[in-house]
Write a structure and sequence with these properties.
InterPro entries: Alpha-ketoacid_DH_E1_comp (IPR050771), DH_E1 (IPR001017), PdhA/BkdA (IPR017596), THDP-binding (IPR029061). With 401 residues, the protein is an alpha/beta fold. It is 44% helix and 8% strand. Bound molecules: thiamine diphosphate (TPP) and magnesium ion.
C-alpha cells in the first residue's frame, strides 16, 4: 500500500474503502503515504534536492528560464512567503481579522502565475496571494480584505485577476463563463489566443459548481485551465477521503486532459501551465492541472491542524520545500551566490516591514462605505437604508462607543 490508488482501492479483505467513516490503521498509514508521494505520474523538473530532471515533453516550455529567470522566480517565492508570514503574525497581534496562509504553496502559485500573459484572465479562490503578486496586485491592495476594511478593491480587468471568492468552487463557474466568452468572441485559435485560469482546492472538487464548470467547458471547448492546488487538506478533511481516484484522473471522464504536476516545483508548474495555456490559446482547451502540494500551515488563523493531522506529514513535506530546492539548484550550479541570497533576504525584510507599517496605519473606512459599489445604478431602497443606518449611528454621538 504505497500509492494514492491503493489507499482508495484497498486489497480485497483489507477492510472498508477510504470513504467509510472510520479508516483502519492500514488505511491511515497508506493515507499518510498518499499525501506525501505524488505517484508515478508526477511531472517534476526539479527534485526536492534541486537536481534538474530532463523532460522531453516539458523542457521546450522553459527554454528561456536561464539562471537569471530562476533567480527571479526564487525572489518571487521568498518575498511572497515573507509577506505571508508577516500577515500571519499581524493577525495574531490583532491587526487582521483573519489570515489565510499560503505557506508551502509558493511554487504552485508563482510557477502558474508567471505562465500567464497580461491578456489572460485569472480567477482565484482566497489563498492565491502568490498569484496576485504575479498579476501586479500588491499585498497592500489585498490585505484590506483580511483587515475587514474592504472587499478587494483592485481593478480586476487591469490586472487580469478577479476578486477573491470564498464560496468554495464558485469561481470555476465564473471562469468557465468568461472562457466561453473568449471563445465566442473569437479570441482563441492561434499563438496569440487568450486563455483563462481558475484556482481551486482539492476540497472544491467535491462541489457541484466545479462539476458543472467541467461539463460546460468541455462541451464548449472553453479555453480554461483548471488549476487545482491539491494541498492534501480541505480544512480537516484529507483528499484521499474525498476521491477514490487521483484528482487529475477525473478529467478523463469529462473528455479533456488532466495532468499531475509537482506543486512544489516552480519550474514544472511554470512549464506545465504554459503548456496547458497554449492548448487553450489554440482552441484545445480545457485542461485540468492537479498541483500536488501541501498546506504547511493551518487552513486559516482560526484553525488548529494539530487536532486532525499527524506531524510526520509536515516533517516529510518540509524536505520538499519549494524554495529550498530552487536555492539548492542555484547554489550548486553557480546560478547564485551567498551575496544574492542575502540580498533577497534583506529585500524580503524591508518588504515585510513596509507591509506592517502600511497595515498599522491603514485608516478605517467610514461606516457608510458598505453601501458603496453595491449596484451600478443608484438604488432608492439602498439609499434609504444608508440614511437610516447613519441616523442610527448619530444616536451614539458623544458617547464612548
Ligand atoms: C460552498 C462552501 N461550502 C463550505 C465552505 C466552508 N469552507 C471554507 S474553506 C473550505 C475547505 C476548502 O478546501 P479546499 O478546496 O481543499 O481549499 P484549501 O482551503 O485547502 O485551499 C470549506 C469547506 C465555503 N466557504 N463554501
Ligand atoms: Mg485543500
Amino acid at each position: 500500500m504505497s500509492s494514492p490508488e491503493q489507499w482508495t482501492h484497498p486489497e480485497p479483505g483489507a477492510g472498508p474503502a477510504a470513504t467509510a467513516a472510520e479508516p483502519t490503521p492500514e488505511q491511515v498509514i497508506a493515507g499518510l503515504r498518499a499525501t506525501t508521494e505524488g505517484g508515478a505520474d508526477l511531472t517534476q523538473l526539479l527534485t526536492p534536492e534541486g537536481e534538474r530532471v530532463a523532460s522531453a515533453r516539458f523542457d521546450p516550455y522553459v527554454t528561456d528560464i536561464d539562471a537569471e529567470a530562476l533567480r527571479n522566480l526564487y525572489r518571487d517565492m521568498v518575498l511572497v512567503r515573507r509577506a505571508d508570514r508577516e500577515s500571519n503574525a499581524m493577525q495574531r497581534q490583532g491587526q487582521l481579522g483573519i489570515w489565510v496562509p499560503l505557506l508551502g504553496q509558493e511554487a504552485a502559485q508563482i510557477g502558474s502565475g508567471r505562465a500567464l500573459r497580461p491578456s489572460d484572465m485569472a480567477f482565484p479562490s482566497y489563498r492565491e496571494h502568490g498569484v496576485a503578486w504575479t498579476r501586479g496586485v500588491d499585498f497592500r491592495e489585498l490585505i484590506g480584505i483580511f483587515r475587514c476594511s474592504d472587499h478587494g478593491g483592485w481593478d480586476f480587468q487591469h490586472h487580469g485577476f478577479h476578486p477573491y471568492t470564498i464560496v468554495i468552487g464558485n469561481q470555476v463557474l465564473n471562469a468557465t463563463g468568461y472562457a466561453m466568452g473568449q471563445k465566442f468572441e473569437g479570441k482563441v485559435g492561434d499563438d496569440n489566443g487568450e486563455a483563462t485560469i481558475v484556482y481551486f482546492g482539492d476540497g472544491a472538487t467535491s462541489q457541484g459548481d466545479v462539476h458543472e464548470g467541467f461539463v460546460w467547458s468541455a462541451v464548449y471547448d472553453a479555453p480554461v485551465v483548471f488549476f487545482c492546488q491539491n494541498n492534501q487538506w480541505a480544512i480537516s478533511e484529507p483528499t484521499e477521503r474525498q476521491s477514490r481516484l487521483p484528482l487529475y484522473q477525473r478529467a478523463r471522464g469529462y473528455g479533456f486532459p488532466g495532468i499531475r504536476v509537482d506543486g512544489n516545483d516552480v519550474l514544472a508548474c511554470l512549464a506545465v501551465t504554459r503548456w496547458a495555456l497554449d492548448e487553450c490559446r489554440h482552441g484545445n482547451g480545457p485542461v485540468l492541472i492537479e498541483a500536488f502540494t501541501y498546506r504547511m500551515d493551518a487552513h486559516t488563523t482560526t484553525d488548529d491542524p494539530t487536532r486532525y493531522r499527524l506531524s510526520d506529514e509536515l516533517e516529510e513535506w518540509k524536505l520538499k520545500d519549494p524554495i529550498e530546492r530552487v536555492r539548492a539548484h542555484l547554489a550548486r550550479g553557480g546560478g547564485a551566490d551567498q551575496e544574492f541570497f542575502d540580498k533577497i533576504d534583506a529585500e524580503a525584510d524591508s518588504f515585510a516591514a513596509e507591509l506592517r507599517d502600511f497595515v498599522f496605519n491603514m485608516p478605517d473606512p467610514p461606516p457608510e462605505r458598505i453601501f458603496e459599489n453595491v449596484y451600478a445604478e443608484p438604488s432608492p431602497v439602498l439609499e434609504a437604508q444608508r440614511r437610516e443606518y447613519l441616523s442610527y449611528l448619530e444616536g451614539f454621538a458623544g458617547s464612548e462607543h
